Amino acid sequence: DRIGWHNLAATLCDLSDYAGARDAAERAFRLGLEAPETWLVFGRALQGLAMFDDAERAFRQAVRRRPDYADAHRDLAQLIWMRTSDADLALADLEAVANSRPSAELALLLALVLERVGRPNDGWEALRAALARWPDDPRLQIAGAQAASDLGQSAEAVRLAEAAWRRFPDHPSVVEGVCTAWLAAGRAREAYEGAGRRLAAAPHDQIALAFRATAARILGEPDYERLYDYTAFVRAATITVPAGWSDVKAYLADLSAALSRLHRLKSHPLENSLRNGSQTAQNLRDSDEPAVRAFFGAIDAPIRAYMAALGTGSDPLRARNTGDYAIRGAWSVRLRSGGWHVDHIHPQGWLSSAFYVETPSAALDAPGHEGWIRFGRPRHPPSLEAGLHIRPEPGRLVLFPSYMWHGTVPFTSDETRLTIAFDVAPT
């Protein structure tokens, strides 16, 4: 059944089994299925296999079959951007279709791409034009609220976010958007209560926990100390030397070489925290590189030590501690001079991580914590500073709650900053 093979391809792709997804999509094609959705899944599988030329051709097949297919245009624009760092090239097809076949979905995508390739004012103007045409679209309202917050237009951000919130008060992205707008506007009490309402329905929602903690910090509520216990919740450790390597230095040299072979892109993904750097396309859990495969054994002891020290309790972090875990996604990031991570959280995790393979040693000694990881500095309001900085060192693994705001201080150096990150879920 060709639809069955398509569904299998999509499922395998979601599970990061890119070779299996490619094979299942090809089986669907042989059975006569030419749906744009199948070409999109096929392109994603090929991208996950680092077959970038073939992936781009597959995405183009998807948009040829459905010219206004926003998901395919997103993946096409993103791949071109990551491969070339050329904003105009990445935007060319998308701008053309957004003008010739206007829709709220394409307008939303255009605004996203403009903002993420470094043109936030153009992205805001695209959103304003789209909102004039589709004023009641909640996706546009939330995107507009986020953009307005980032540009310091807090009153407009609140207006747009509250319009969506009145209609969809429990939707996670709406809660995130309205809490962002409230905090940017100095309305911490509303953000505190709005995040609390979401947590009553979904107590492990990492986004709601992040906003609850930020609002609690501003208001002086005890929730903040409970959620942001840096001493208990943020831990750094040196990994165990994997079997087959004499010491950590020798292992890191091989790991760096292996990751360098996987870093074949130039720029960051669109919906991602990193800037002026690249991210590996595949899930590192699926890598055949011996040094990469050994990494997951090397981090087992530090993760188990973290959970043992954490213990159990009633707070949202300890309450989920079962003493066992699974890795949810793993990727590598290479930052160049001027690179950084925007302050963010990990919505799908329980614990998150930063493991340092290479660090810009000279920059780390510069004033201002250049290249260090920081914790507790939210995107909004900008007046709140980080509560903790940790100096990255090769071989150091830092573990922390996924709901905790974290980012990287920009650095200037001829050296790069090479890391591995992964999320941990309790099992």
Keyphrases for this structure?
single chain, 427 residues, globular, alpha+beta, 6-stranded antiparallel β-sheet
Could you characterize the architecture of this molecule?
By secondary structure, the protein is of the alpha+beta class. It contains 19 helices and 9 strands. The chain has helices at about 1-15, 20-30, 35-50, 50-65, 70-85, 85-100, 105-115, 120-135, 140-150, 155-165, 170-185, 190-200, 205-220, 225, 230-235, 250-260, 290-300, 300-310, 360-365, and strands at about 235-240, 275-280, 325-340, 350-360, 375, 390, 395-400, 405-410, 415-425. The longest helix has 15 residues, at about 70-85. The two termini are about 35 Å apart.
Q: Indicate the structural class.
A: alpha+beta
Q: What distance lies between the first and last C-alpha atoms, to the nearest angstrom?
A: 35 Å
Order of helices and strands: HHHHHHHHHHHHHHHEHEHHEEHEEEEE
Mean pLDDT: 96
Chart the SSEs and their pairings.
Blueprint: H1 2-14, H2 18-30, H3 36-48, H4 52-65, H5 70-84, H6 87-100, H7 104-116, H8 120-133, H9 138-150, H10 154-167, H11 172-184, H12 188-201, H13 206-219, H14 223-227, H15 230-233, E1 235-238, H16 248-262, E2 274-279, H17 290-298, H18 300-310, E3 325-341, E4 351-358, H19 361-364, E5 373-375, E6 388-390, E7 396-401, E8 406-408, E9 417-426
Helix pairs in contact: 1-2, 1-3, 2-3, 3-4, 3-5, 4-5, 5-6, 5-7, 6-7, 7-8, 8-9, 9-10, 9-11, 10-11, 11-12, 11-13, 12-13, 16-17
